[in-house]
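User: I need a structural model of Guanylate kinase from Amniculicola lignicola CBS 123094 for a docking pre-check later this week. Nothing fancy, just the predicted structure tokens so I can convert them on my end. Input:
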Amino acid sequence: MAPIDTHAIEANRPIVISGPSGSGKSTILKRLFEEYPDKFGFSVSHTTRAPRAGEQDGREYNFVTKEAFLDLVEHKGFVEHAQFGGNHYGTSIKAIEDIAEKGRICILDIEMEGVKQVANHPNFPKPRFLFLSPPSLEILEQRLRGRATDKEEAIAKRLNQAKVEMEFAESGEAPHEKIVVNDDLEKAYQEVKEFIVGKDA
Ligand SMILES: Nc1ncnc2c1ncn2[C@@H]1O[C@H](COP(=O)(O)OP(=O)(O)OP(=O)(O)O)[C@@H](O)[C@H]1O
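Assistant: Understood. Predicted structure tokens for Guanylate kinase:
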């Protein structure tokens, strides 16, 4: 494995944001990126799935073969990786470095198992961890229905998973430095912003 550019990563510590599906991560991050257009970056993930029409290698994803993917796993080149629907997905150290080397803060929007992997990576410098929580499972359910993008069955699955994630976030094993409860969106946005860019930004 190539040595990690810890200097760049420590100077621009990545932020890991996690939270149940529907807790508001995309809504809040979109606003943060709009308010600070030059400050952040999303890393480009690796995947073994085939590109869809309009997707470009290195832009939406780094499209790689299964062999290349597993080789990188072997060489500890990912901070986190997982398999969904028969395809592999992962965030490489290099993709995070690329953002940090541009002087930007890399934002990693990842799910619970990925959070555990990042936190336990043997030599990747520790990022800052933030958990975005819905005020309750009842309100999360209303928001998922309101978003109108998920089928009934998907909503039930997301709610079950949300319960697991919220229990994990509140357990002593979770790496989160801060939990923001997304009740009032404006208040939650300000809290996330303060955690990420500091009070005076
Ligand atoms: N504080 C809030 N009050 C009311 N509605 C909200 C609030 N925050 C977010 N929402 C709404 O809840 C829905 C889910 O938010 P969003 O899509 O940002 O969640 P997410 O965490 O990014 O989900 P996923 O992980 O599935 O991408 C959206 O319709 C959004 O407009």
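Before docking, keep this in mind: The pocket of adenosine-5'-triphosphate is lined by residues 19, 21-27, 143, 146-147, 182, 185, 188 (CB under 6 Å).
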